[in-house]
Amino acid sequence: MADQTFQTPAFRELRDNPKIQDDAMAHSQPFIAKPEHNEPLGFPGELVDDWEEKAVAKLGDLLEKNKALRVYLDSCVKCGACTDKCHYFLGTGDPKNMPVARQDLLRSVYRRHFTTAGKLFPKLVGAKEMNKEMLDDWYKYFHQCSQCRRCSVFCPYGIDTAEISMAARDIMDHIGVGTKYSNEILAKVHVIGNNLGLPGPALIDTMEGLEEDVEDETGIPVKYPVDQEGADVLLITPSADFFAEPHVDGLIGYGKVFHQAGINWTVSSYASEAANFAMFIGSYEQMHKVSNRIRKAALDLGVKRIVFGECGHAWRVAYSFLNTLAGPWDFLDPKYPVPQHILEVTHELIQNGGIKLDASANDDKVLTFHDSCNVARATSMGNMEGGQFIIPREVIKASVNKFVDMDPQTTCEKTFCCGGGGGLLTDDLMELRVKGALPRMEALKDVIDNHGVTHMAAICAICKSQFTKVMPYYGFSMDMIVSVHQLVSEAIQMGAKEDI
Amino acid sequence: MSVLTIAYAVLFYAATAILIIGLVVKIRSYIVTPSPLKIPIMPAPMTRTGVVFRMMREVTFFESLFKSNRWIWILAVLFHAGLLLALARHMRYFIEPAWGWVVFIQPFGIYGGMAMVAGLLGLWARRFLVERVRYISSPSDHLMLALLVLIGATGLGMKFVARTDIVQVKIFFLGLLRFDLQPLPADGPLLIHLGAVATLMIVFPFSKLLHVPGVFFSPSRTQVDDAREKRHLAPWAAHMDADREA
ipTM of this predicted complex? Predict the structure, then answer.
């Protein structure tokens, strides 16, 4: 990387904790949103007058609305269990990237304004005013949290820094300090329906192109339908699936699975985005608005089921929040959970013989699997505890003969974030993204060196984009990262059922 | 009646009132504040019973802490289990005649006191020795440990070094329970011990000791994994359903 202004961190031989380096990442912050990004979301265009009081008032509002925030701000005992669990701390050594220190940026203001101890003895209990210095720290360090929830797994009280950073971002948006990346994208979703700003005609064009490619390759007329009324399944997938490698190979795979299973499906040009960036900015109202595009699309198209494509944060909003935000789903077929993950659909079809896979088609690969943070720690699959770990692995193993798991300290609920989640997948945070990928890159290097792993599969658009970008910094090829349904796509036996 | 006895009687009535009222106010706020969304840390139990077991494992074995850091876990178990035994031993000062199991537990209460102080000193040492923990420690974290060590040390001191008139102490506390003031022995270690305990009771609802009720209200651990099956809706958010297009 010739234009690199920072050092890619070295692999740690013994996985020891980094030395603390004060302000190591104090220069890192995302581009600030302009009025034209904020105003369409109903946020003030720029920093408002009396923002200090307004920030504190908004915190008070959130404390009334969110039990988690209230309990988490009171309960931390500073035991230190979380201090070495965050990938951004491990990659940067900046002490404010220790989850407890990050939380304390908000907790100190909470203590000053909402607790007796903080009002009477601020110095003693670390209570601080909301001032410019504090706001700067908030903007920097609450945008060095990818809301991956790893710290929460290890906290004796389950304190989830994601909840704290979402609250802080929500407060900042309400005083006119948002990020360009998330707010610009959200404004696009409200108008066009997806994060890319891909309008309906372009979407139809893209999907027709896929149909031609797949027919050229397989000789089978697999359909990639858009806005098809009366389809059984509405597929909601991240818009990255419509254009970029390796995402699009996954989309091709979904189409092949539906085709072989005889499932009539469609995407919607109105709700052409699975990812809900409103979660990143902690805005319930925005999340509600984006989610209800899916409800409207499902009603307008008259579908019976909703299936989500491979997307980590999207699956969190889908699995855990969609019933709250856009339910009830009483107009859909009650035989199926709402929504389903594409992997649940594929897994079931593999089990009941609805599709056949020939794993030898992927014999040129040795696979490992990166558990996406939000899938691992905020969702499940298959109506079984831990299904989110089992089902992707079963589908991979049905598609590939050679599979190796990475260090168990870095998989399943202990998985590390890719380094680009939670609204940080933007080029203005490249240094943070590269450094935050360190723990995953180390675990990957182990299985490459010791087990000859050639590819790493992921089920999240952010993971796939992030790894494609940062793996070269660590000396790995960007082609190593694949979609799970890309493997399915290679292995699936196409054609008339009696022939296979 | 001596001024000292009256002062300590008032102190303990006040400390008890502050502890109870403070905790009731806090716990009430945890109960009435809604959760807008389902946020269990996965994999999470799919039934209420499963959640009860998850919570039992957390509060009895410190399961997550065990996964996280073996040193903190050992020290935390020493402290908390020791404190529990010491508290159980102390029940005999409030009950007459003492229950059988309280009598049985008396010697273990002593070991508990020792374990408690050892655990506290270990946890305190971490605040100086481990760079990361040093960074996150504020003065109140040190003071809290100092207060607890003071309670433990004076307690053990009265057992092994300078004994107090424990029979008279019991008469004092039984008197407090019946609103019938009885004299308190004017022994230095005892007065320090009791003063520190009352201080702890007073700061409890205003400090990080709120982790004691807090752990039972943490949505990431108390929620059931059933978001797709049951619609969860916070009262403050319900009106938004009416505004949507479809």
Answer: 0.96
**Cis amide leading into B97 (omega within 30):** yes
Mutate to test the interface with B, among A21, A79, A155 (most CBs of B within 10 A): A79
**What is the spatial distance between Cα A374 and Cα A152, in angstroms, rounded to a whole number?**
12
Is the CB of A323 less than 8 angstroms away from the CB of B67? no
Q: Do B221 and A101 touch (CB under 8 A)?
A: no
Instruction: Provide the shortest C-alpha distance from residue B122 to chain A (in Å).
Output: 12
Comparing CB atoms, the residue among B39, B217, B246 nearest residue A296 is B246
Q: Which residues lie below 8 Å from residue A26, measured CB to CB, with a gap of 6+?
A: A94, A140
Q: What are phi and psi of B96, to 5 degrees?
A: -135, 120
Q: Which B residues 209-238 touch A at CB under 8 Å?
A: 210-211, 214-215, 217-221, 225, 227-234, 236-237
Q: Where are the domains of chain A?
A: 44-177, 186-494
Q: Which of the 8 DSSP states describes residue A19?
A: P
Q: Is B140 left (phi over 0), alpha (psi -120 to 50) or beta?
A: alpha
DSSP A366-435: -EEE---HHHHHH--BTTBTTHHHHHHHHHHHHH-S-B----GGGSGGGPPP-S-TTT--SGGGHHHHHH
Q: Is the peptide bond before A246 cis (omega within 30 degrees of 0)?
A: yes
Q: Check CB contact of B168 with chain A, cutoff 8 Å.
A: no
Contact between B36 and A324 using a beta-carbon 8 Å cutoff: yes
- In A, which residues are within 8 Å of B225 by CB distance? 380, 385
Contacts of B161 (CB under 8 A, 6+ apart): B189
The answer to whether A292 contacts B130, with C-beta atoms less than 8 Å apart, is no
CATH class for domain A44-177?
mainly alpha
Task: Give, for all 500 residues of chain A, the pLDDT tens digit.
Answer: 445 789 999 999 888 999 999 999 999 999 999 999 999 999 999 999 999 999 999 999 999 999 999 999 999 999 999 999 999 999 999 999 999 999 999 999 999 999 999 999 999 999 999 999 999 999 999 999 999 999 999 999 999 999 999 999 999 999 999 999 999 999 999 999 999 999 999 999 999 999 999 999 999 999 999 999 999 999 999 999 998 989 999 999 999 999 999 999 999 999 999 999 999 999 999 999 999 999 999 999 999 999 999 999 999 999 999 999 999 999 999 999 999 999 999 999 999 999 999 999 999 999 999 999 999 999 999 999 999 999 999 999 999 999 999 999 999 999 999 999 999 999 999 999 999 999 999 999 999 999 999 999 999 999 999 999 999 999 999 999 999 999 999 999 998 665 44
Strand order in the sheet with A233-236: A265-266, A233-236, A305-308, A340-341
Task: Give chain B positions within 8 Å (CB) of A328.
Answer: 231
Question: Rg (Cα) of chain B, in Å, rounded?
Answer: 22
- Residue A450's φ and ψ, nearest 5 degrees, are -100, -20
Looking at chain A, which residue has its C-alpha nearest residue B55? Answer: A157
Residue of A nearest to B68 (CA): A154
Enter the pTM of the model.
0.96
**In this complex, do A413 and B233 lie within 8 Å of one another by their Cβ atoms?**
no
**A78/B69 touch (CB, cutoff 8 Å), yes or no:** no
Calculate helix-pair angle for A67-75, A161-174, nearest 10 degrees. Answer: 120
Min Cα–Cα distance to chain A from B225, Å = 8
